[in-house]
Amino acid sequence: MAEKNSDFDPNIVAFLCNWCSYAGADLAGTSRIQYPPNVRVIRVMCSGRVNPLFVMNALQQGADGVLISGCHPGDCHYMQGNYYARRRFNLMRNFLEYLGVEPERVRMSWVSASEGAKWKEVIEEVTEGVRSVGPMDSFKRRQLNW
Amino acid sequence: MAVKKLSKDKVADALKELSKFRLIAPAKSDEVVVFSEITDPEEVCLDYGNSTVPPKKVVFPQTETLFRFVVGNPELEEKNVEEEGTTVIFGLRPCDARAMAIVDKLFSWDYEDPYYLKRRQLTTVVGMACVEPPSMNCFCTSVGGSPFGKEGLDLLLTDMGDYFAVQALTEKGEKLQETLSSHLEEAPADDEKKVEEMEAASKGKIKRSIDTQGIPEKLPGLWDNELWKKVSASCLGCGICTFLCPTCHCFDIQDEVESGEGRRARMWDSCMFSEYTVHASGHNPRPTRRERTRNRISHKYSYYPKRFEVIACVGCGRCINLCPVNIDILDILSQVVDA
Amino acid sequence: MVNQDKLREIAKEVISREDVRQLIGYRPGTYGFRARPAFVTSPEETDELIFTPACVNNLATYITLEERLPVPRGQEPDTRKVAVMVKGCDSRALVQQMEEKAYERDHIVVLGIPCTGVVDMDKVEARFPNVLEKGEISLEGDKFLLTVDGKKEEVPKEELLADKCKRCRYPTPLVFDQLLDEEVARFADDDYSDVTELEKRSTEEKWAYWEKKFSRCIRCYSCRNVCPMCYCEDCVLDRLQPQWMRRSVDVSENTAFHIARAYHLAGRCIQCGECQRVCPVEIPLMELNRKFYKDVEELYDYEPGTKVEAEPLLATFKVDDREDFIL
Fold first, then answer.
1. Rounded Cα gap, residues B189 and B254, in angstroms
2. Which domain holds residue B71?
3. Is B209 domain-assigned?
4. Residue C293 DSSP symbol
5. Are residues B75 and B112 in the same domain?
């Protein structure tokens, strides 16, 4: 496990809902809050828009971890999107764990537009979690086989 | 050429000798027999009926790169099949070897497929005669084959009890036999005759048959016949019959691009898939399983024989054994004969 | 066991109805102990219909598998009903299809067959290899009776019974217009021991296990095609725009295929086990689908294919759904 941690800089893809999480991440930025740079953000209108197969696809393309972040339950801009997302990702995460994909790789969070500080904590926890399990290898697409 | 003898206790050594080439032989993955690249001769399992996936995948891989490219660079990097090196397929059944000889005709016809033909050139095929028919659904004798058939083979091994009788059938086979000469001995003089007797006995054990006389000529006339609807009613439209068929050879070509580089790859396709003949406009000339079933049977038993004078079916029985809904090609053909 | 004459009589009645286009049942296979689907359109054809423990196919898949071509101008579409014979497990497919509004209840005529279990053909053929003559399997008490070529042999039911039947919760069809036999009370239950056993393994062991299986996959799509719940005309696994999984066959794409298919069955798979039965390279697909099945039951108290009026799992939510995994 030690070699996995040392020089490994995780590559994490994050799907952030436009109204809450993206705004919260933006707030962290404007507040000049320092946090690990390992997350690549993809803005979606709602966490309910995120197809669980995006997680599979991201891991397949080489992402070491995936984060989906949305509004707190009850606060979704579209009323229920995050409720649907909650069910989907609970199931997807459990299933990927069953296949041998560490649960640290698939994370979900509720971050509201005012929670810049929480965003920092979420990123730190997710990055450390992915760092501890090492690079994504199992079903990554292998360029070398070509 | 004279028959040689390979004692069963020398087989492991012979396989070790062959592992200096790229050795492909039957091995078990859980309980499934798969033709795999062998690194440890202990993995080889010669006591098997027939593999699920035929060894056609050695010379016609399920997925292969044709060339690689970098976006923006007009030069392509063509796949060099030579890099795969000399390959030996060890222990396949005569039907699977005959299937390769049948498919050779297509791949060397109006366009000589460089990838397939190069692989065939680099591959030596060592067969294992069927002392017993591997499956009760075998019908190789009905389509011009035999459980001890030599077509497509370079070497034929016959299980004589505590040794294999080894017969070289081609120049390639003789060359390979030379490589193995330290493991081979002279076989008893009457072995050649014994092998012939065993062949006759094995042929006698094949229970299923169909008289294919006249089928290639009859099929086109049955285009609108009711029988196609009936036999295809239960078809699921999966690819089991085509992927497991040693003579099926349809493929799709797709480009795969990622981060500025990519490859053009060829992969198996199935005429039973609904999107097989979908046009760019969305029109599909074979819209239902009825048309696709009719096409598959006609291709194997009419179009191919008309062009290449051989039925594109070797009677291995895999489609019968593994069709999930028990669609039986012999059942279909007997309906064709009766129609 | 179902009385074969009564079955044929009822089938004859049903297919003679003016409003029924075809009847899907079972008939003897082409060799050995096999049975295969029968598509009957006239009363005479009902004479070959059977129902025995060899009738393993899930016929509910044919309701949604049917190809509907555009109707030529001037013609009316054929709106007659389709009659289908279903066992307990198969009937759940019909329920789930109707729950998802794949078709209306009056599109089908359901002939329900209360089932005490079917055989696993692999086990039968391992026990009686090389049987080419057409044979019959019947149930006598707690034994299967196999008859071929005049010879009979009794085998304890346990030895040939399909694994899925050993944990069957719904032997009697949940939807039917007629029942072809006495109701069968539940005789088994499911403890998901196959799933929990795998869950206990370490991450490396899990991936090693699945990698071995997925590298055997030849992407024949038989699992998808036989599945009664896989009936999308434009399947995600086939799409080219966007292409979710490439057509090339390697561990990465195969894994993506199986993840996608299993996920699309979350809360929909009705446990008929056909996918695993048809797989030519023996991938334990039920172990994949049952993981979702178990999670769906434990997390959301939902069992697919049991109530036509139920709401599909992922189209609903509860405000207090579990969120202990969320930061």
1. 55
2. 4-204
3. no
4. H
5. yes
Tell whether the torsion through CA atoms of C295, C300, C303 and C304 is positive or negative.
negative
Could you give the CA distance from residue B108 to residue A9 in angstroms, rounded to a whole number? 51
Q: Is residue B210 part of a domain?
A: no
Question: Do B55 and B87 belong to one domain?
Answer: yes
User: pLDDT confidence of A145, banded at 50, 70, 90?
Assistant: low
User: Using 50, 70 and 90 to split pLDDT, how confident is the model at C80?
Assistant: very high
Count other Cβ atoms within 10 Å, centred on residue B329.
Answer: 24
| Chain B residues in contact with A144 (beta carbon < 8 A) | none
CATH of A2-138, one of 3.40.50, 3.40.1350, 1.25.40, 3.90.25: 3.40.50
DSSP conformation letters of B133-169: -SSTT--GGGGT--TT--TT-SEEEEE-SSEEEEEE-
* Shortest CA distance from B263: residue in chain C: C248
DSSP B312: S
Q: Got the DSSP string for A97-142?
A: HHHT--GGGEEEEE--TT-HHHHHHHHHHHHHHHHHH-S--TT---
pLDDT at A5: 54
User: What DSSP designation does B220 have?
Assistant: G
Q: What is the ipTM of this complex?
A: 0.93
DSSP label at residue A79? S
Same domain? For B136 and B227 the reply is: no
Residues B302 and B181 in one domain: no
Number of domains in chain B: 2
The tokens for B79 are 């796949």
Res. A1 pLDDT band, cuts 50 70 90: very low
Q: Which of B173, B204, B235 is the last residue of a domain?
A: B204
| B266-285 residues touching C, CB cutoff 8 A | 267-268, 270, 273-275
Closest Cα to residue C146, out of C168, C121, C166, C111?
C121
**Which H or E run contains B328?**
none
Distances in whole angstroms, Cα of residue C257 to Cα of each of A20, A145, B231, C246: 33, 19, 30, 9
CB distance A143–B65 less than 8 Å? no
**Residues sharing a CB contact under 8 Å with residue C198, sequence separation 6 or more, in sequence order:** A98, C206, C209, C287, C291
Residue C281 and residue B53 in contact, taking contact as beta carbons nearer than 8 Å = yes
Question: Domain map of chain C by residue range?
Answer: 4-179, 193-315
d(CA B250, CA B333): 22
The answer to whether residue B70 sits within a structural domain is yes
Identify any residues that bridge with B158 across adjacent strands, giving them in sequence order.
Answer: B165
CA A87/CA C269 separation, integer angstroms: 17
Q: Which chains contact B through at least 3 pairs of Cβ atoms less than 8 Å apart?
A: A, C
Test C325 with A93 for CB contact under 8 angstroms: yes
Query: H-helix or E-strand containing A3?
Result: helix A2-5
Report which of B103, B233, A69, B83 is spatially closest to residue C326, judged by C-alpha positions.
Answer: A69
Q: Strand, coil or helix: what is C289?
A: helix
Domain match, B137 and B255 both: no
Verdict on whether the full-model pTM lies above 0.90:
yes
Q: Which amino acid is at B112?
A: E
- How far apart, in whole angstroms, are the C-alpha atoms of residue B86 and residue B22? 6
In angstroms, the CA A11 to CA A54 distance is 15
* Cα dihedral sign, B217-B221-B227-B232: positive
Contact of B261 with B68, CB cutoff 8 Å: yes
Helix extents (H) in chain B: 11-18, 56-59, 94-107, 114-122, 171-179, 191-204, 215-218, 227-232, 240-243, 289-298, 304-308, 318-322, 329-338
Of A99, A109, A145, the CB nearest to C207: A99
Chain A residues with CB under 8 Å of C266 CB are 91, 95
Among B266, A70, B240, CA closest to C277: B240
Per-residue pLDDT of A72-85, as tens digits, reads: 999 999 999 999 99
Q: Which of B178, B204, B230 is the last residue of a domain?
A: B204
